[in-house]
Specification:
Blueprint: H1 13-18, H2 24-36, H3 38-49, E1 60-61, E2 69-70, E3 75-76, H4 78-91, E4 95-100, E5 106-110, H5 111-127, E6 135-139, H6 144-156, E7 159-162, H7 169-179, E8 183-187, E9 189-192, E10 195-198, H8 200-208, E11 217-221, E12 235-237, H9 238-242, E13 254-255, E14 259-265, E15 273-278, H10 280-293, E16 301-304, H11 311-323, E17 327-331, H12 342-350, E18 354-357, H13 359-371, E19 387-391, H14 397-407, E20 414-417, E21 451-454, E22 467-471, E23 481-482, H15 486-493, E24 502-510, E25 517-522, E26 526-529, E27 532-535, H16 536-544, E28 550-560, E29 564-573, H17 580-597, E30 606-609, H18 623-631, H19 646-652
Parallel strand pairs: 4-17, 6-7, 6-8, 8-11, 11-12, 16-17, 16-18, 18-19, 19-20, 29-30
Antiparallel strand pairs: 1-2, 3-13, 4-5, 9-10, 14-15, 15-23, 21-22, 22-24, 24-25, 26-27, 28-29
Helix pairs in contact: 2-3, 4-5, 4-6, 4-11, 5-6, 7-8, 10-11, 13-14
The structure holds 5'-O-[(S)-butoxy(hydroxy)phosphoryl]adenosine.
5'-O-[(S)-butoxy(hydroxy)phosphoryl]adenosine (WT7) binds next to helix 11, strand 20, strand 24 and strand 25.
Amino acid sequence: MSETSHTIYTPPADLVATAHVSGFAAYEALCKEAEADYGAYWGRLARELISWKKPFTQTLDDSQAPFFKWFADGTLNVSYNCLDRNVERGLGNKTAIIFEADGGEVTKVSYSQLLAKVCQIANGLRSLGVKKGDRVVIYIAMSIDGVAAMQACARIGAIHSVVFGGFSAQSLRDRINDTGAVAVITADCQVRGGKQLPLKAIVDEALALGGCESIQNVLVVKRGGNAISMTEGRDKWMADVADAQPTTCEPEWVEAEHPLFLLYTSGSTGKPKGVQHSSGGYLLHAALTTKWTFDLKADDVFWCTADIGWVTGHSYITYGPLALGGTEIVFEGVPTYPDAGRFWKMIQDHKVSIFYTAPTAIRSLIKAAEANDAVHPKSYDLSSLRILGSVGEPINPAAWEWYHKHVGGGRCPIVDTFWQTETGGHMITPLPGATPLVPGSCTLPFPGITTAIVDETGNDVPNGQGGILVVKKPWPSMIRTIWGDNERFVKSYYPAELKGYYLAGDGAIRDEKTGYFTITGRIDDVLNVSGHRMGTMEIESALVSHTELVAEAAVVGRPDDTTGEAICAFVVLKRPRPTGDEAKAIAKILRDHVGKEIGPIAKPKDIRFGDNLPKTRSGKIMRRLLRSIAKGEAITQDTSTLENPAILDQLSENN
Ligand code: WT7
């Protein structure tokens, strides 16, 4: 994971010449400006990038640390900033979104059209009584409607919480319950890889599980032709609510700290946390990082392949590119349908100039391309590309080199962007016209971001020595709290021993000579599978919730060539340890059960059965031993505190 290469790629001269941040000296000057007067630096950018209804007079308020406030006496509207403002600047006819459906149909909307659509949805929501501060859960696939629904919430000051369409009814129910949402926006179905998958039916199932009594309305966007059931009084077609509404809608001007959205993510313990983001500070960083990290310009075609159900889709589809008046792609489908050349074909067809995706996608497309020339990037015209990006997990140098050579034609810088749901936007990343690149390293902090590596007591560690990744100073787009749980927020991110630094949860190391950062992976019980973040505890709870079969379960990650990490579960059944076909059959039942409890993305790749788990005499499961077994490594660790050493051999056997 911490592998880096030693090849250095300097920014191409033509890019340096025109980049928003042009040359390494310009990067350094911005860092110096931030260091010299932190408040003035962020204040300057917040005035330049955001249109405020009421200008702020104070930048950072740290009087209630770690509950920081930014631009607190300013008011704004995020949707105004992303839409109206662009129309007012003369971009009304410019294409905002190029939507490509799973089957290849293309729909384009201009800024004026998107604004009209957002206003109609916003008016529709208002007509149902949805108001500032109400939570709205959005459970929908990649679509113009999805982006518009998020923007419509922002327009009326409602707080959206998008739930990824791959999550199960149970997960959806838990999130609706935790937010206390008044409405759900969904679609009849989603289409992926040529198949229609239900969405509304899952919403029905989630609501039937109970605990969602706050929901008054379910709005359904029509995507397919599948039959759905509509509950009288609760469920309405979006078209019936929105289409007759006026195409203008006065925005709700909100305070900068007003929550824009909640997004659930996994922690090391317990249930997923509702990460709460602000309006002003969040929008600033989403816009600023889109501008500097991707060097977005007026004539670019930007494509972030993430789903709007993840933070990457929030910052780099719904908010950042639109705030800058950019043109972007929204893609409904999957990278391998109708074949593994889909991404390359779309880049060619839409003349994409900036392409942002996850290492796991690249690795799986490498495999496909190596097996079949027809889906190799060389079979497509990718000359429109000028910048490539990577996000979600470390990118190994081999995948980096392939991406650079075969997708970028050797001429496009790759920005390896390190950040998190909690950080709102990029934290450590190259700037394409400024930072020399080293494959496998996310290079240096974004200007104004104070990432550092410390030991367990918060003291800096020298370069070349690994440690804990922290952020020393608060930044505008940081998480404000965990929804409804201030205490958990402080405990998770501001542990007392770290001197008031933000704890990212990752390990990292800086290069001795260059100071470049390499992320070495999570230091807590959080897994990263295909760039999706999951807590081991969540998967364990899902397994043991199969009370008929499972007595005990422990989940660890192991390295995987394609998905980065793979989920490996060790399970003790309430019946004798199965082998052969019986073990396979039970493993399938348990996998499906996890799929039902959390969603298909959480299904363990390996399930091993044992009569017991390796435990200390005090009963603590020794996960580090399980990690070695999962990897197929010989056990070299000290096992003297283990109560039942014989169990290791049994778990190491493949059953
Ligand atoms: C975790 C955050 C960032 C948005 C998508 C994921 C890992 C993320 C990188 C990178 C190495 C990375 C970290 C981080 N991660 N980007 N460029 N290099 N690791 O957001 O679901 O909140 O996950 O993803 O472990 O903590 P998330």
